[in-house]
Amino acid sequence: MVTETIPFDASRYLERRDAQAELLNDALMSGSAAYITNALGVIARARGAEQVADDAGMTMQALEAALKPGVDLSLGTLMQLVKVLGLELGAKSAGSFLTNASK
Q: How many helices (H) and strands (E) does the chain have?
């Protein structure tokens, strides 16, 4: 007997904005460009990718191209999408860096 599967799309389960912000924060903390790009894609789909593209002043094709796996997201596009999604980026010092620097 063959088991049928369907693709999993996390965007279907990521409706709350605080959960979306948590996902992006986790991606940023990982330092993985691929994870950050994927997280933005998931959040865009959760919000309605066509609306996100329109709000960002880009075509749907341009949004899909920017968030395609393996593509390095430009800083400008990252900032544009973060703004359109109503999220904020921040920075904090890495505790171990300060500890080591002060020795």
A: 6, 0
Query: Whole-model pTM?
Result: 0.82
Structure tokens at 92: 């904090």
pLDDT 10s digits, 68-87: 988 889 999 999 999 999 99
**Angle (nearest 5°) at CA 22 between 95 and 62:** 115
Q: How far is Cα 79 from Cα 88, in angstroms, rounded to an integer?
A: 9
Q: Could you tell me the CA-to-CA distances from 7 to 12, 14, 40, 86 in Å, in that order?
A: 12, 16, 18, 28
- Would residue 39 be called left, alpha or beta, if left means φ above 0 and alpha means ψ between -120 and 50 degrees? alpha
Q: Which domains does the chain have, with CATH numbers?
A: 10-88 (1.10.260)
